[in-house]
Amino acid sequence: MSPLPLAFYARPALEVARDLLGTLLVVEGVNGRRVGRIVEVEAYLGEQDLASHSSKGLTARTEVMFGPAGRAYVYLIYGMHHCFNVVTDAEGVGAAVLVRALEPVEGLSPGERTDGPGRLCRVLGLNLNHNRQRLDSDGLHLLSGAPVPEALVERGPRIGVEYAGAWAAEPFRLWVRGSGHVSRFVSRRPRRRP
Fold first, then answer.
1. What pLDDT, on a 0 to 100 scale, did the predictor assign at position 30?
2. What is the per-residue DSSP string for 37-77?
3. What is the set of domains in the chain, with CATH numbers?
4. Beta partners for 97?
């Protein structure tokens, strides 16, 4: 199978996020070939999206987000967890989709958890060395997978972006209903503050 073409990513982040569900993320490196089916993502729409890293404008860290679509944006959070994103949309927009959870397919043992962006990066061996890498390369690419029917796609607010005001409530997190690999239980009821 051939990697998804770079044109796949050159669309609005929400469209790409939806279409990423069910695709296969492939990492080939010192640990061999590791493959996971994407079951949870979050879309970040660009500079206007206050939850996005690009909302601070063009910086050394976010430069890749403003570059051509179809590149990896990998960053370190809390000084210990890597997060893997795919850059989307047109150059200059600053949009990306965070891959939050995978269902193990190949090269992963049953005990290796992939339910969360930091966990999946650790298990797949994704790190800052993958930042800016093209997503059609031999060592890092995505393949078409079994399409996820719309009836199985759930949508809700992104996780951990409460600082973003109204943008925090936007339903830009998408996941496959019923997957045991989604990173966090989602309640349909809004949380109440004490």
1. 84
2. EEEEEEEE--TT-TTSGGGG-S-TTTHHHHS-SSBEEEEEE
3. 6-176 (3.10.300.10)
4. 43, 86
